[in-house]
């Protein structure tokens, strides 16, 4: 009887130790997160940087714009968002002889890897442009 109980206890311990614990301890990494905005027209604008629910705002008079979060803890489903809002109001009905279209490049870099990047045209009709990146688990101790 003791032998059966011993085997049962050992077998139970083996099953518990081999169970998946991905949900209990999600992958967490620490990386530098960089936001970059480059403008071909060097026009002023407002930049919103978001990490999950924390948003910070910077008014920018010149470019390039760069901001770095050092060694930020990141887990799956964390969100990074970068938004550029052109400064000033431009009427679509009136001709503005001083207005010229331009482009902005938004970039999100995690560690040394560019995870999101896009060049957007900015016209008189542009309200804002944005990039988003969600982290996903890609394997044991890996995330993108």
From TrEMBL:
Tagged with keyword Signal: yes
Top-level taxon: Bacteria
Stretch forming the signal peptide: 1-22
Keyword annotations: Signal
Protein name: Lipoprotein
Annotated source species: Carboxylicivirga linearis
């Amino acid at each position: 009887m003791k032998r059966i109980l011993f085997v049962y206890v050992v077998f139970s311990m083996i099953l518990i130790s081999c169970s998946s614990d991905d949900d209990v301890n999600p992958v967490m990494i620490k990386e530098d997160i960089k936001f970059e905005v480059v403008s071909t027209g060097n026009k002023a604008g407002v930049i919103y940087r978001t990490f999950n629910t924390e948003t910070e705002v910077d008014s920018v008079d010149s470019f390039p714009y760069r901001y770095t979060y050092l060694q930020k803890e990141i887990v799956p489903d964390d969100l990074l968002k970068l938004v550029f809002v052109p400064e000033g109001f431009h009427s679509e009905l009136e001709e503005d002889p001083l207005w010229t279209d331009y482009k902005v490049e938004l970039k999100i870099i995690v560690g040394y890897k560019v995870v999101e990047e896009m060049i957007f045209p900015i016209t008189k009709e542009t309200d804002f442009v944005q990039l988003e990146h969600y982290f996903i688990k890609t394997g044991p101790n890996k995330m993108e």
